[in-house]
Every structure is written in structure tokens, then in C-alpha cells.
Amino acid sequence: MVQFFRAAALFLKRRKAGFTLLIATVTLLGGLSSLTSRVDNSLPVWQSEDDPNWHHYQRFMTRNSISDPLVIYLPATDISQLRSIRGRISEETETSVAGVMAGGKNIGEKGVLLVKPAPDLEPVELATILQKSRKVLDDSGVSYHLGGVWYITAMLDRFSAQSTRTLFPVVLFIVGVAISICIRSRNNVLLVLACGMAPAVQVVGVMAAANMKLNMVLLALPPLTMILGTAYAVHLVAKIPDSDKQTAADLYIVVAKPCLLSAVTTSLGFLSLTFSEYLPVRQLGVWGVVATALALVNALVLLPIYFRPAPRQPYRIPQSLARMLFGFRYLLLLVFFFCCVGGSLGVARLGVGTLILDFFADNSEVRNNYQAIEGVGLGLTPFEVDLEGCRADKMRIHKTLHEFASSYPVVTHFLYFFPSGQVVTEAAPNGLEIDSAQQYSYTLAAPHRVSVLLRTLSSEDTLKLADELDQYLKKNLGALSHPYVTGAVPLYVRGQRALFDSLLKSFGFAFFSISFIIGMALRSIRYGLLAIIPNILPVFFIVAAMGWLSIPLSVSTVTVASIVFGIVVDDSIHFLYRLREEAGSNMIRRLQHSLDHVGPAIIITSLVAGLGFLGFCVSPFIPLRDFGFIVACAMVLALICDLFLLPTLLLVGYKDDE
């Protein structure tokens, strides 16, 4: 490997202009391709093609020509104004719009409009309908609130797009400032930024060229790629020659091998996500490997061409650190033990599942709209009940649903759809009264489907309610060849449950595969095991912190464990590689020399990466903020473990003869 990297460094340096032009061209093409990148958080993005529930829902939607409506609630209106607005929205959006008055004793003061687009419209077309509907409502001067499944999806797309535009520049600025302060060499600062920016732009371009749309899981990948690229570069530029004879190429050779191993472990962390049954998480796993490869290739190409060793290290490790750790080794282990005990209490408090509204800030438009609409008794979460093949008569169906609603106050309304095209709307005991021109008792046949509206719940409670409703209908109406309950919301939450169920499988693969690779690469089972302990603890501590801070496992945070484990192990690899090359039998002296050599790079990479992930906090998307904050904390914890716990473990049982 030494000869290979030496020859590669010489080859690249001799062809400096050609490879620089190649990197610049690929990055430019990636940037141009990234301009076509789109965001899509619609339901099909989150479904697996082999899921029978998804197939049933598709058949159900096709058979009934269904599309989820945009709900418009008018808290103060009259029948003439309602009809006027309905007509204008229908004309502007070219969609079907239904309108009813509501409010019980105050009927005539509240109105509800349902904008029903054609099935299978693209997200951009739905966003256009939403925009035109807003304009009509704004022009009318009426007070209004919006809700519904694809309204939420459109707002997720909007915030995701905002994050795409703002997140990368913010992270780039933070990382640039941090590197400038830490490196103090303009040439090397620009080199590190190039190693981070180029692969980040390239991976977005490749994804766009492959027609891979971004979603709220994949949003973190571009800035994550930039942080990986900068980390590989910092491990080189933070080093100085051990002697006058050691050249920049020699330092490159020393760093290239552990960087290669680090990329392998990071890739394994991403690959572990492919065990998930959740399609976006599997996509993150695959594209994470691509991003890691691009970050490594760009670093290994640019570093030997442009790296210039600094005259001195930007920071130095205290010369007595190793001896101090030796003197307090058992006390330090005791401190870490008690931290683990406290962490176990946090893990026990960890929640699973989220309220969809928690994806948005407390004062956001979405939260305000949902609170206003559901506060008056109009649920915005629909369950679809598929009655195809059901032989129960209409009164039995009616009685069964209302009996169920009497036990669940979150149910607000039933919308009965009949083969004749007739639609009857009824309020449950806790729902807003609707002025419906149709009466259920006057219908001639049984409904072939029913929409059950309920107030928004957490994903776990929503799934529990969907399962209970399905079992209740089977018990009272008879079993069918398909589930009774379907719809976009149950499919979303079932996908989340599958995601959580595969969490341990994903992390288990990452843990064992990374441990094996490190042990083989370092040719030491002991080093392989010791490298795992200080890197699994940050994962354990951040999961514990999520429990203490009431941050639940959600679509975005559930991927943290595998990704963090694959990233934080990098610094341990560089440290153990250096320790293995240190000669002598005095472990304290070997540890001190290793800390002197790689310690500054470990500190800089951890701080730069941690600050970069803190940049995620500017995102308007709450789960992405949580992801950035959690990973930033993990980087700091990993730094503490690498500088204090790992040397302490190596000193356990060692007797100093000096």
C-alpha cells in the first residue's frame, strides 16, 4: 500500500493541471445537473413495491378515482360568500370543489370547502393548486385555515426545498470559518474546502441525473458529504513533518491508508441502512455509499497535488496527557461507568413515533392551521374504509361506525360514499356539526366506502387506532379478503413502524461489520475491540440524551445510530494506526507520541464536523434540526472518548517501570 500511494502521489502531482481540470469539470457538471433536482415527500416515495397494503391502497384509489382533498376552513362566512369562493377556486384551479356550512347552533357562520384535485397529480401540480387557492382566498379578504394530507405534503416539500437552498451555504460558511481558525494556512484552508464542496455538489448532481428526488431523509446527505470530505482533508493538513526529511508526499502516504479504512467503515454504516424496510432510508444507505466514495476520491486526488505542510501544528496536545491518564485510569473508567448508568435511564425514556405537526415549529402556519381547524371539531386525518365485498346492510355499517366513534373522541366525522355517486356527511358525537343536504337514512343502498376523519395523533397512536378500527369492523361486519382500513395516513405510519423494527438489524450489521474490518486492517483483535468501545458509547449517549430531552425516534433521527457509528470511528482508526507504528515497549510514551501526532487532527475534525452539523439548526424542518444537533453532540462525545477513554483502556493492566 505504501508503494501504491507513493506512486499515486507522484503520478497525480505530475499531472496537476489535468486532474484539477477533471475535478473542476465533474463538479461543474454536477452543479448544472443539481439545478434540476426536485423535492418530493409524497406518499409513493415512502412505500415499498412489495408491500401488500400499498398494493391494496393503489387498487382502492384507482377503483374509486380518489384523491385526498385540500380542506379550507372559513371561521366567519355566509352561504353566498362560500358559494362565490367555491366557484372562483374551481375556476382558477380547474378542480372540483365542494362546500358546506357548519357550526351547529351557529350554522351560517362557519364554512368548509374541499378542493378535490384529479388523481395521480404530480407534487408540483398540487403545489400550483394550493398557490392558486391561496390567491383566491387572499383576494376575497376572508379569514381561512388550510389542512389535509397533501397540504401537509406540500408544506413538507416547501420546507425541504428551503432547507436545500439554505442548509448547504450555512454549513459551508460555518465549516469555512472553523477551518480558517483551526488551520491558519490559506492554501490548506482552500484545499480543505475544495475537498468538501466538490463531492457535495457532485453527489447532488449524480442524484439529479439519476432522477432521484430529494426527500426529508435525503436532505442531510449533501452537507454530510461536505463534512466527510473536509474530515479526510483535515487529517492531512493538520499534520507537520516529524523531521526535515519527511515530505508532503510522505505525510500523504501516512494519512491515506487510515482515510481509506475510515471510508470503508463509513460506507458500512450507510450500507446498514439498506436493511430497513423504509424505501427512503434504503436510498440514504445507497447514496451515502456513493457520497462517501466521492468524498474519498476527491480528497485522495486533490491532497497530494496541493497540500503544503504547515511550519508548526495549529494546536498541541499537553505533553503530560498520557501520564495523567495513566495515573487516573481507574477513576476515569469509574466516571464513564456512572455515565453509562445515567445513560441507561435515558434510553429507558426514549419514545418511538412522532406527531406529524412536530415536524413544524410551534408558531408555524401548519400548526396554527391545524389547531384552528381541529379545535372546532373537524378532524384532518382521514382513514379510508374499503367496504368492497362487505355484505352487511347500510344500517349495520352505520351503527358499527358510530359505536366505535362513541369510544374514541378523536373521531369527528364520517363521509359515506355510495355507488350512485351520492355522498352523505355525518358528525360523530365530538365533531363539528355539518349542514348536510343528504340524510343517511334516506339512501337506498349500502355505502361502498367510508372516510373516517379524526384529530391528528402521534404515529404510534394513529397506527394503534387504525388496527383497532380494522379489527372492530372485522368482528362486527365480517372478515374480507383485504383490510378494511387503508389510506395515506395508515400507510405512512405502517412504514414508520417497519422502519423502527429494522433499527436493531441495521445497527447490528454496522457494529459487527465495522468491528471485523477494523480488526483485520489493524491486524489485531484487541485493537479492533478497543476501537469499538469508545465509539459505541457516543451512540449510546446520544440515544440516552434523546430520551432525556424527549426527542423520539422518528423518520430522520432513527438513522442517527448507524451513521454516527460509521463516522465517529474514523478518529479512532487514525489514532490506532499511529499507535501501531510507534516503536518501543513503553505504552505511556507510545500513547503520548500518538496523541502528539494525530491528536490535533482529531480535535479539529471533531470540532469542525460538530459545528457543521450544528448548522442544520437553521433548517425550518424540525427533524433535520434534531438530526444536526444529535450528530453534533455525538462528535463532541466521540472526541472525549478518543482522547480520554481509548488511551485509558489501553493502559488498563499496564505497569509503568519508569
TrEMBL record:
Keywords: Membrane, Transmembrane, Transmembrane helix. GO terms for cellular component: plasma membrane. Residues 528-652 form the SSD domain. Pfam families: SecD_SecF_C. It comes from the Bacteria. The keyword Transmembrane helix applies. The keyword Lyase does not apply. InterPro entries: Mycobact_MmpL, SecD_SecF_C, SSD. The chain crosses the membrane at residues 166-183, 190-210, 216-238, 250-273, 285-307, 328-348, 503-522, 529-551, 557-577, 598-622, 628-652. This is SSD domain-containing protein.
